Amino acid sequence: QLRLVESGGGLVQPGGSLRLSCAGSGFTLDHYAIGWFRQAPGQEREGVLCISSSGGSTNYADSVKGRFTISRDNAKNTVYLQMNSLRPEDTAVYYCAASRFWCSGRTVSYNYWGQGTQVTVSS
User: Which end of the chain, N or C, is less surrounded by CB atoms within 10 Å?
Assistant: First the structure.
């Protein structure tokens, strides 16, 4: 069974950092573009960052520029989202997703999704 498993979410104070992980189970991620999305209560799911199979990254959310980075470790079959200088408005459920083709900020472009991990930024 092909699955993506996110981890690393939690409660953090404003200005803090978290690193989210997205691990592949049942398939290898290195041939896929991997995107991170987030969804806050009452809002649509939005694209955050994506990393292509060749390692190039694309940013879909202006609000995270300079604060969030995406990377992949093919040996560990894992993609990471490093989040620094977190703000209360970053609070959301974060999802990773895999696309057989290329990066996109559209949810319909992705073939596999994780279950999500909650990130709460609050003092």
Answer: N
Asked whether the beta carbons of 24 and 77 are under 8 A apart, the reply is: yes
Q: Which residue has the tokens 């003092």?
A: 123
SS3 sequence, the chain? CCEEEEECCEEECCCCCEEEEEEEECCCHHHCEEEEEEECCCCCCEEEEEECCCCCEEECCHHHCCCEEEEEEHHHCEEEEEECCCCHHHCEEEEEEEECCCCCCCHHHCCEEECCEEEEECC
* Residues in the chain, overall count: 123
Give residue-wise pLDDT tens across range 79-106.
Answer: 999 999 999 999 999 999 999 999 999 9
40-74: per-residue pLDDT in tens? Answer: 999 999 999 999 999 999 999 999 999 999 999 99
